[in-house]
Amino acid sequence: MKPAHFALDTPESASEALALLSAHGDSAKVIAGGQSLVPMLNFRLVRPERLIDINRLDELSYLRVADGVLAIGALTRQHEIETSPVVAKEAPLLTQATPFIAHPSIRHRGTIGGSLLHNDPSAEYPLVLLCLDGEVEVASTRGNRTIALRDLILPWFSTTLEPDELLLEIRVPVAGESSGFGFEELARRKGDFALASVAVALDFDGSGRVERAAITGTAGRLAQRLAGAEQALIGESPTEAVIRDVTSAAAAEIEPVGDIHADEDYRRHLLGVLTGRALRKAIGDRAGSQED
Amino acid sequence: MTWIGKPVPRREDRPLTAGAGRYMADIQLPGMLHMVMVRSPHAHAKVTTIDTEAAKAEPGVHAVYTAADLPANLKPLPVIWKPEGQKPDAIGALPADRVTFVGEGVAVVIAETQQLAEDARELVRVKYERLPANVDPIQALEPDAPRINEDWDDNIAAHFPFRNGDVDAAFAEAAHVVEGHFKINRHGAVPMECRGLIASWDALTETLTIWSPSQATSLLRTELAKSLGLPDNAIRILSPNVGGAFGAKWDRYAEDLLVCVATQRLGRPVKWIEDRREHFQATAHSREQVQDFEMALSADGQILGVRGRAVADLGATLPSSGIGTQWVTGNTVPNQYKFDNYSADIFAVLTNKARAGSYRGFGGPEGNFPIERLMDKAARDLEIDPAEIRLRNQVQPEDMPYGSPSGMAEYDTGDYPQALRRALEVVGYEQIRAEQTALRERGIYRGVGIGAYVHCTGFGPSALLGQINYDTSGYEGARIQIDPGGKVTVYTGLIPIGQGTETTLAQIAADSFGIDLDQVRVVWGDTSQTPYTGFGSGGSRSNLAMVAIMNAADQLKAKMIRIAAHTLEANVDDIEFSNGHLGVRGVPDSGLSMQEIARIAHLAHNLPEGEEPMLQTQQVFDPPGFGWAYGCHVGVIDVDIQTGMLEWVRYVAVDDCGPMVNPLIVRGQIEGGIAQGIGGATLEEFVYDESGQPMTSSFMDYLMPTFHDMPRYEIDHLISPSPHIRGGFKGMGEAGIMSPAAVVANAVVDALDPFRIEIDELPVTPNMIWRKLRDAGAFEDGQPAASLAP
Amino acid sequence: MTGERRISLRVNEQDHELDVAPRTSLADALRDQLGLTGTHLGCEHGMCGACTVWVGGESIRSCLMLAAQADGCEVTTIEGLAENGSQHPLQESFSKHHALQCGFCTPGMIMAAADLLQRNPDPTENEVIDWLGGNFCRCTGYRSIVSAVMDAAGNGSGEPASSSGVEVTANNHHPITENGR
Prior knowledge:
The complex is a heterotrimer of chains A (292), B (790) and C (181). In chain A, 37% of the residues lie in helices and 26% in strands. Chain A is of the alpha+beta class and 292 residues long. Chain A has 3 domains: 7-53, 2-Layer Sandwich (Uridine Diphospho-n-acetylenolpyruvylglucosamine Reductase, domain 2), CATH 3.30.43.10; 58-173, Uridine Diphospho-n-acetylenolpyruvylglucosamine Reductase, domain 3 (2-Layer Sandwich); 182-285, CO dehydrogenase flavoprotein, C-terminal domain (Enolase-like, domain 1), CATH 3.30.390.50. Chain A has a 5-stranded antiparallel sheet with strand order 4-5-10-6-7. In chain A, helix 11 (240-253) packs across helix 12 (264-291). Chain A is globular. In chain B, 27% of the residues lie in helices and 24% in strands. Chain B has 19 helices and 32 strands. In chain B, strands 3-7-1-14-11-12-13 form a 7-stranded mixed sheet. Chain B has a 5-stranded mixed sheet with strand order 9-17-16-15-10. In chain B, helix 8 runs parallel beside helix 9. Chain C has 2 domains: 5-80, Roll (Ubiquitin-like (UB roll)), CATH 3.10.20; 89-176, [2Fe-2S]-binding domain (DNA polymerase, domain 1, Orthogonal Bundle), CATH 1.10.150. Chain C has a 5-stranded mixed sheet with strand order 2-1-5-3-4, with helices on both faces. In chain C, strand 3 (52-55) and strand 4 form a beta hairpin. The termini of chain C are far apart. Residues 163-181 of chain C have low confidence and may be disordered. Chains in contact: A-B, A-C, B-C. Chains B and C meet through helix 1, helix 11, helix 17 and strand 30 of B and helix 2, helix 3, helix 4, helix 5 and strand 6 of C. Strand 30 of chain B pairs antiparallel with strand 6 (177-178) of chain C, so a sheet runs across the interface.
């Protein structure tokens, strides 16, 4: 199962990559880890004329904390994120979510940028980064721009990235003192594409009430903010009754798409169940960090 | 020195763990070309034109063939099992003008490299006129369903009835009847190595050399010879290491013919290997059946009769073994249970899907599932424990040999109740039952599922194969040669496909002569050297090869004794053969080693009168009957009622294949079979949409069982030797896969007993479980009902 | 050939210069051009793990890597795992525990397991299962592989299943042997 012909460029710098994208953007695809792209090439589902291999751009692989923001280079490997104490401290939702991505050997090559831009409906990073209200910095020969996550991701494996743009960096606010995070995913087998998944980020006030809540979920279509579920939680103490209301709201709000692995109704139900579990995890996470 | 029963590590392992195995894809020959298939994207269509000009013009392309380009005298490969009433069919190379499933090959492209062939393939322009397609086996029974085989007047390949006793009377007088509508999912072997073939034609000697991972190379050779119009002995088939087969590589396929035609035409070796997507679309599927069975019982749970209908979806053509799989299903339904009245109507129909062919168990699991589910339904209705109801119905050891009501199965030896009791003892059945209610109150829904089974092994007596219209033989031969240096070489027709043939046959031979294992070499996989076998590796028949080896060893031992007697000037009766040494009884330090006798036999300077030189012989063993392995598996599963996900708690397997040559290898066969059974019961399925498009053409969609999906296996054995196989070996290659599906379904139904759901369809998925729970009222507003919350 | 480029690979401690097309996978380059056929192709879409090798000392799926992307890298294949003609502990323990049957998944499985053991010499069973969960085996049913890896790490029972050596007589039964114990 061999791919169709393509030309291959291997730029040694970001500016070289941008020049290539400017010249060939419409007929080229960027290849980073290749863990999602190469299968599609092998199936001949995509047949770009040209691949631009950005794996030499070491300058795009980093984890930096400054001014309350964790900046992650687009080329940072998933394995590095999984095992980084910096990420565990500043964006624990990423640490919770990364082990769900496929399997270790995939994560040795796969990058956060690649996963985000591939934007599979069941992917972990778009969901988590949306939950964390992240933003991305992209560049082209026309200049740089910043795109909020909610403005970046579109249904069905699409983003608002222009063909001549290169993703440089992903930024999320660092975790606060009184935060709790929970990520839950259900798949047919461990490592498979999620049937449904939920990311929860909570900030608590001094009395244990939820001050801020971000709940994102996906059930086969697109990572979405579940604002109704968030509203049911904000200002409340997370009792069992409140949790039930939140999960009902989440299940009602999600827009599932079914396939041979799970139908719509079941995904909707799962989304609700996972919301409850992620919520409990986030509450426990907060309680755990309080005990530290 | 005895080697039987020793769990020796395999001699196959060293090269395989070092990456030094030689699988078909690894073979490179000088001048080799690469063939790819152009496959139909439609489930049912007329082929109006095929334009190959653009493809042919591509650099590196050597040829493009369609049906019109094939030799006029090329015959299709045969369907060799033809039970009475089965309509005629054959396995053609390329269709002339109509395709009947997505993935059917319509043309071939041969080029310098795999990449170039795949590029050129895209330039072949095929014009199709779509026809209505049918993917529903029940619909296929209707006279107006789209006709798949235009030589037939309907889509029914065969209707095979089983009749015994008087089922009508049994049902009329029954105190209770249970019934079920069962669906066995379409799934299959899916070995890790794809299917392929390399063929090299030598025009000067007019001989064809083939490398094939086929399980049945003698059959492949005979059939190719007939189809190509060559003498059998002009074809030599070599077996590389095989990366798993499980039946899918036993069947013969169109590509086997096409690669041979290509090499003959082009005068260069041609390699064809499918990719994984093609594998899912065009290599044998299996198992799919829609069944309705019912069971009549007395008030205390005695089976009075079983009747029903099974409709098997064979896809678009019959496989090499015809409706053999379905015939086995009809034979398997009575299982371990003692009753006379049996009526089963087995239908096999054609639809616009890939061909269904051989897969481990070969129709057995399809027969096991409905009966084991019915037993549990009966247990529930009559309020008898599911283990107890089986004990009340099992054939007893003293009933053996027992003729089952299928009319075609005679169980040889075994203690079915003991297997069940032992499995229950190991799993701690009473404890589990005692805990169930308390666990439920804590929100843990735990269930126990029992799956008892029988499985036919040592396939089979040639005369019997003749009686059932199986156009092949069932014997196994073995040739043993002791060379002048005294080392033993065993030639076998079996093909190793992972079952440790080299090691186990070496153990048998070494045991026969009383010598070290390293004195024995096993040669396999070369039709010009190894004994003909009309069946090859399939049907759990290693035991037949073992008997042939033991018989051949006997002959050579007798000859060595004669030569020793002559050489030592002693009486034949006074010569003792033990541990590779021949001496005069009672005279220690006398005697000769096997090496010395071998040298004497080869020099032939002074042999007994009339004795032939050398030490070699061939023996053929044709079994007088089938063997019947059996066992009982018990599984314990927790069901998460919120998500429908299953978690294994225990899996106990008590199996009896008679004495075991190598317990380590037997264990591997059982565990592998259980894993496939669990995969088929919970994960795997070839799915087609209504228009006949396959939805599961990659490992993303066809879900293989992984490390995460397996229980720990608790394996125990009983040993009931076969009465007509020397050594008593029965064979365990397939038995592990027989009952896991029943175990899973029974365990889940038991776990969810408060909801009174039925699980009669496979695979058992979380989605299905959740839907049944929802329909049974288990949820309120998406949450488990308040009455169920912990 | 269109767009071919010369790459340098250091494979199993030997340097090689190869000409590869852009679309040539690392797996194909190793197999077809270097004759290292121990790395197998089971799916060519990154799902089965049979093609697992090490690049830069970490396990990756060679069917998903372009050969050109490995330019200048150190590659270790199954053929390079054993040292000085003796077997890697995993190769020995796989045989001892009957953790292979047809052998097709085995090189990839061992390369993946060897990567685990170099990072985590003392894994739990769950860690082994988690690490290897994306490597398919169709023959063994997986538990024997878990035992083999645990044993190679020094954490197993050391005894393969079915090694009890109990005398077998007709109509007897073996005592229980649970895998790994």
